[in-house]
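DM between two lab members

TW: hey, do you still have the Adenosylcobinamide kinase entry open?
JB: yeah, one sec
JB: this one, 451 aa:
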Amino acid sequence: MLERSEGPTGPEGPAGPEGSVVLLGTGGDGGLPREGCPCAACAAALGGRARGATSVLVDGTLLLEAPPGVWGAAARAGRSLTGVRTLLTSRAAGAGRVPGLPDARALAAGAEEVLPGGHRVRAAALDRPAGEVGYEVTSPGGRRLLYLPPGAALAAPGGQPCDLVLLDVLGRPDALAALRAAGTVTPATDVVAVHLGHEAPPWPEAGRRLAAAGARALPDGAEPGAAAQGRGVPVPRRTLVLGGARSGKSAEAERRLAAFPGVHYVATAGRRPGDAEWAARVARHRARRPAHWTTAETCDLVPLLTAEGPPLLVDCLSLWLTDAMDAVGAWDDPAWEDPHAPPGPHDPPGPDDAGPAGPAGPGTAGAGAGAGGGRGGARAALAERTAALVAAFRGARRTVVAVSNEVGSGVVPATPAGRRFRDELGRLNAAVAAECDCVLLVTAGLAQRLR
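TW: and the structure you got?
JB:
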C-alpha cells in the first residue's frame, strides 16, 4: 500500500484516501466472464468472482491501465477518477484519449519520471516485444509497487524489495520465481494476482494454485490493505501429493513449486537401459520442468531432506520403496509373513500391531513394528529404512513436495509380491502424510486437499 500524494478532491468524491492502492479491475483483457463464452471458468465467474479488465488506481492520482468502463469500475469501488493526473498504459498501442482523464501514454523501457505528487515511476523492460513495459512505482514515503502486464516477466529482474507486486501469477509463475530469486519478492511482499482470465482454471481451483505459489487474488474494488503488510501468503513446508497412474499428480507437484527459484528435482526412478517407452516418459517429464531447476537421480533421500537448501521436489516415494525393498530382499523373504520365524538382527521386540505404532505413527521403527510387523529380517530392515525417511520428513527445514502413488483403491494385486508392495506403500504414505502440513489427492487432474 503506497502513501498518497496530495491530490485534489473532486465533486464526485475523494480522489483516494491516504495510502491507497485500489484494484479497479483484476481480470484479463476483456474481463471475466468473456461475453458469450461457455467455458467452465466463465460459467463460474459469478457475483464477486466476476472481474473487469485489470486497472490500478494509486493514491487517487496515478492510474495504471484504463480499459473500457474504468469510470464505472472506480465508482463501484467507491472511488473517483477526477483526481487522476497521470495515466500510464503498459502497451504503446494502447495509448490515447480516455474521456475525462489525462492522455494515456506508455513510457519507454528504462525511462524514469517523477510525477505530480512526488511518485517516482520507472518503466521496466520485459521479456516481450518492444513497446510493452511494466512499472515500478515508489511513493514519496519509499514504499514500492511493481506492476507487470499479462503474460510478462521482467527482462532483467533486480532492484530493491517491493511491498506489493501485481502480476499474472497463473500465466507466468516463472516470472514470480525470477522475482524471488532477485530479491524483489521477499516473504514480506504482498503478491496479488491480476489479469485473471478464462485461461485460468475456475474458482476455487485458481485460488488453491495461487496459495501454493504464495500469492492471493482479491476481488475488483479491493484495496491491498495494511493487514497484509509485512507478510506474504504462507506456503506449506511439507506437501505430499498422492494419486493413481496418469492422475496428474506429478504435474500438480511441479505446479506447486513453479513460482519458486532454485528448485532441486529428485527423480527416484533411475535409468532403465533398453526401455524406450520409459525413456520417452522421463523425457516428457524433463521437458515439462523449468529449465532453471536442477535434477538429481537418487533414492538416497534422507541427506537431501535433512540438509538446508532450496525447495525440494521428490518424484516419487513409490519408486523409493521399490528400491528399498530390492535392497533388503523384501520381495521374496520367506520369513516375511511367518510369526514363528526367529528374530532377525533388526527386529523390534514385541508383537506386531497393524494399526498406528505409537506416537510416531505408522511406518516407524522403535515404536512397535511400524512397517507392518512379523519377525523376518527383511521386514525389520525395511521398517528401519522407512523410519529414517519419515524422521527426515519430520525434521525437514526446507520446502519439500513429495509425490507418491495411491494404490490402495484399485484391484487386489494378483501376486504375493504385489500385495506386499501395496501394503507397504500404504503404510509409507500414511506415515509421511502424518508429517506433512499439506496432503493432496489428485484425480483426473484435479487436486483435493485432504489436509
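TW: got it. The chain is about 25% helix and 15% strand. The radius of gyration is 27 Å.
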